[in-house]
Every structure is written in structure tokens, then in C-alpha cells.
Amino acid sequence: MTRRPARLPLGKAIGWLVLLALIVVTLTPFYVMLKTAVSGPGTLFQQARSLMPLEPTTVHFERVLGLLSPEEARAAGGSGAVVNFPRALRNTVLFTVVVVLGQIFFSAMAAYAFARLRFVGRDLLFYGYLSALMIPNIVLFIPNFILIRDLGWLNTFQGMIAPFVLMTPFAVFFLRQFFLGIPASLEEAAKLDGSSPFGTFWRIILPISRTPLVTLGILTSIQAWNEFFWPFIVAREADVRVLTVALQSFQTSSAYGMPDWAGLMAATFLSVLPIFVLLIVLGRQVIASLQFSGLK
Amino acid sequence: MTDRTPAPTNPLGTTLRRVAKRAFNAEAATAYLFILPSLIGFTVFYGYPAVRAVMISFTEWSLLRAPRPIGLENYERLLGDPLFWNAMKVTGLYVLYNIPVQTIVGLFMAVAMHRLTQSLVVRGVLVLPYLVSNVVVGLAFLWVLDPLLGTFNTFLGWFGIPRQPFLGSPEQALISIAGINIWRHMGFTALLFYAGLQAIPKELYEAGTIDGAGEWRLFRHISLPLLRPVMVFVLVTSVIGSFQIFDTIAVTTQGGPVNATRAIVWYIYENAFQFFRMGYASALSVVLFLLLITVTILQMRFLQGSRSEME
After folding, report:
1. Are residue A130 and residue A48 in the same domain, yes or no?
2. Which of A40, B64, B121, B283 has the smallest C-beta neighbourhood within 10 Å, fewest atoms?
3. What is the dihedral of CA B48, A240, B271, B235, to 10 degrees?
4. Mutual orientation of helices B11-42 and A122-131 as an angle, nearest 10°?
């Protein structure tokens, strides 16, 4: 007992030191992103060695948001490769909202049927859904691309959302697990009151499933906001592309010569702001959702 | 739900059964309506394409003309394709660089948090990289690892280490990409382990401490064995994900320099969407699928042993 107080603090101190180092490592790229984005035009070569931004300015944010004339933007270091940030942001927001609402609603309906209703082929169908979890995206993306192309949906919004808006196997599986745990007596009571199956689902099941719905909503939102591969394949034109695709093309379009790092970092930083806000406002739920995603 | 109907030995029982059957049908009809939207989504974008991918893999198809059936030719060709074997090597190496470091660092973070702090802020900060897109992460590191102006080279300069080309060199590109993804995933891995650690009763640690066990022995004899189900989950999912590395490559190296980062999914992507060899790309993707199934089964066998701790 007399030894331990002397030994523990040292171990604790080392533990804290390493943990703090990992926190610094985690945050540094974000800091570099922000620092580059607010550094004055023409300071790019000196700023690598400076911890603080040189000649701080918001001009890069302004030109990324399209608030400056093309001449002004070029003067501030724009390479001419324009990323239509407001447009891409709008596309990402729309994509995320439609995918999240559609996917969760339709998956919840299916999950309810799988958890609560009896019908021929229920288990077989459910295992079919589950086994789809094992298939790598790229296997499905090739035929899906061909289908979208045959429908004439390349470079359209509907082509982008189609594979995600009606279900994902994970969403159905996740909600079914929760619905299985709801006491059946609740629905029996509603049924006796003459509630239709859909009425029961809408007025009883969904309201008491707030927690898992929020969890799934958070996970799906983050995923949709960050989705890259599918939109990259089917929707690359400037008008329809989402932020991830726009940022990727912004970078690759400046392949000859130096990329417009300040503009790129300003755009990148703006694109992650919503994630920061989500984490600050809903931190506890976000972290609980992520922890839960591992314990499915 | 509805109780099971008693065995129909009398007219009343038969009637009951008929009623039950009718209810069952009404219930089934409702159920199908509930399932319909998801079933359309599943059939069109999961079930059918899964079968179609295999069918396409037996054809030669550039999308300009009708597909031409060629039997197993794509699979034969793949076995003799040096770029396929290169992609396998690159992918395998990437998994080997990525998984052990990511898992061990994540595990350390989790144990450190578990023993030192419950802070939500710490967890929030550490998981932040996982919440932003691969594209953002790729762009940020393209800049941080820039051979000329990158912060990381400046940092190395403090220790007298000369500038490194990182993503620009065939020798360092794949390791750099592995490093980027370790950075992105270590906090999330830690979060999963942390959740697992919290589920372990505190009394076990108290008892261990009373018996004079130090941190290492507590970890070795309590945390590690009881984390086994989480470990299985983390390893299986992160290995599957790691095999499918794509986004980071699309943003940073696009398969180069030379073939240093031409991992399998990037190679499939090139074949399908740059060279429009749909048949060959599908064959490659089917092989990837079979490989992933095999790896997953092996992992389950190896990690779970004879115990059935999952679920």
C-alpha cells in the first residue's frame, strides 16, 4: 500500500503523455488545413515553417464561396480550376437529406414486418438481406452503373440516390433487432382500439423507437455526407456532383503545376464544418451511435 | 403475437384454424406491403446485380456493343495478368501495414481512456478523423505530406531528417496511404474497444488490484481475454474494409507512382470505368468477393477457436 501511490502517478503520467501525443497527432492535420486556408495569398512557401497563419485573411473562403469576381479570385491565388462550392454543397445536403429520410423510413417499415408480422418466406428473405452485407461494393457497382446508364440516369440526382434511398441491409437489420425487443402488448392494445397496421407502426412503434432511429440517423447522415465512390462513378458532371466528388476533381484538375492549396484547404475545411457542428451539438449521441455500431 | 392455434380435433378447432388462417393471410398481405419498398431496393440494387455481376464476368462487354459470351476466358486471363497479381500484392501489403498498427494503437488508446479518463471530449476528438470523408482526409494529407512544403517534412527537419517524397515515391506511397488510414481509423477502433472495456465489471479490476496486479497484468488477464468478441468484430470488419481501399487512392496517388498503390479495387475501377472492360472487371470483382469470404471464414475460425462468444 505504501508503494503504490508513488508508482501509479508515474504510470498515469506516461499514459496521459502518450494519450495527449495521440490527440495532438489527431488534431494537427485539421489545424494545418485551417492554417493554410486563412494564410494570406503568396505566403504558401513561408507558412510551412510557421506555426501560426501568416497575414491571416478570409479571402480564400470568400473565393471558394463564390463571393469574389474571377479576377479577384485569381489575384488571391485561384488557379482558375473553379470548384462550384455552393452548388456542390447544395447537392450534398440534398443527397444526405433524401437518402437519410428515405432509407430510414423504408428500412423501418421492412424491419417492422420482419420483427412483428408473419408471412411466408420471412426468414428466407431476411437472410437474403443479411447476406448482401457480405458483398463488396465494387461487385454491385458495376451492374448498378450499367443499370443507371441504361435508364439514362447518369449525372442525375435520382441515379445518385437510387441504391441508397429504399433500404440498406444494415438499416433493416439494425432496426429489426430493436423492434424485436418492443413488448407486443403495446401493439395488441392499439389493435384492439381499431388501429390499422400502418397506424400502429406510425403512432406507436416509430415514436417509442426514437433512440435507435436517432442512432441510425446519425450513422446514415455521416455516411451519406461522406459518400464518394458511387457518386464518383455515376455523377461527375459539375452540376450534379456532391462535395466529395467536387473536391476530388478540384485536386486532380490542377495536376499540372501546383495545386491551389489555400483554396483547396478552405473548401475542405468548409466541407467538414457540418461534421464539427454535429459533434459539438450532438456529441454524446454521436459517440454512443458509433460505439453501438461496433456492438451490433 | 397471436397464440398458436390448438390442434384441431373438433369442429370448433377447425373453425378456429380457418379464422387463424384468414388472419394470417391478412397479416401476410400487410407484411408484404410493408416490405415492398425495401424489397424493390434490395432486388434492383443488391440481389439482381449480385447475380448479374457473375453473369457479366462470363462475357466481353465494352458497353458499346452487346456483351459477347466468352465462358471462363476472363478468369483465365486474370491468372496470367501481372497487374492483377501486382494488385493482390499491393492490397495484401496494405492490409499488413494497416491492420496491426491500427489495432494496437486503438487498443492502447482505449485502455488509456478506460483507466485515465471518461471524458467525452477526448473520445470526440479522437474519433473526429473517422467522421470526415476519405476525400477530405486524403486532401489534407496530400498537403501535410507534400514533398516540398508539407508540414510533416518540416517536422522531420527539426530532427535533421531530410525531406521525404512520401506519396510521390514508389517505395513510400503505399506506406503513406496506410499511415493516412491508420490516422483516420485508430480513434474509431479505440472507441469500439472502449465500449467493450466499459462492459467489463469494475469489480474484476478492483479484485485484481487488491491481489497486487499491475496495469500490464490487469490488461493481460482481464481486459484482453474479455475483449475477445470486440476484437473479432474489429479485426473482421477492418480487414474487410482494408481490402477494399479505394477513396484515399482516388484522391492521392490514383494507383501510382508506377504501380505502387494500384490496389485491387482501384484496378477493378480502372478496368470498368476507364477502359470499359465490364466483363474483365466483373471477373476481378467476383474473385475479390471469394477472397474476402475466405479471409473472413479463416479469421472467424482462427480468432474464435471453438468458443462461440459472438452474440
Report:
1. no
2. B64
3. -70
4. 20
C-beta separation of A208 from A187 below 8 A: no
Whether A135 and A25 share a structural domain: no
Lookup: cell for A59:
479571402
Report angle CA A222, B268, B64 to the nearest 5 degrees.
Answer: 110
Enter the DSSP assignment of B236: H
A295 in a domain, yes or no? no
Residue A79 confidence (pLDDT) above 90: no
Angle at B98 between CA B93 and CA B99, to 5 degrees: 105
Contacts of B266 (CB under 8 A, 6+ apart): B87, B245, B246, B249, B250, B254, B255
Residue from A10, A98, A142 whose CB has the most chain B CBs within 10 Å, to mutate = A142
Hey, what's the cell of A292? 453501438
- Gyration radius from chain A CA atoms: 25
Residue A288 lies in a domain: no
Chain A residues inside the 8 Å CB shell of B191? 287, 290-291, 294
Q: Tell whether ipTM is more than 0.85.
A: yes
Is residue B79 one of the residues assigned to a domain? yes
Query: Which amino acid makes up residue A263?
Result: G
The minimum CA-CA distance between A169 and chain B, rounded to whole Å, is: 8
- Contact criterion met (CB below 8 Å) for A134 and A127: no
- A35 and A170 inside one domain: no
pLDDT at site A81: 54
Alpha carbon B136 to its chain centroid, in Å, reads 19
Q: How confident is the model at residue A1 (pLDDT cuts 50, 70, 90)?
A: very low
Beta carbons within 8 Å of B63's beta carbon, 6+ residues apart: A146, A149, B276, B278
Contact A270, A225 (CB under 8 A): no
User: CA A176 from chain center: how many Å?
Assistant: 23
A168-190 burial, b for 16+ CB within 10 Å, e for fewer? bbbbbbbbbebbeebeeeebeeb
The boundaries of the domain holding residue A209 are 85-253
- Hey, of A4, A96, A129, A139, which one would you mutate to test binding to chain B, going by the most B CBs within 10 A of its CB? A139
Please name which of A286, A176, A123 lies closest in space to residue B125, comparing C-alpha atoms.
A286
Residues B187-197 have pLDDT tens digits of 999 999 999 99
Q: Nearest-CA distance from A70 to chain B in Å?
A: 24
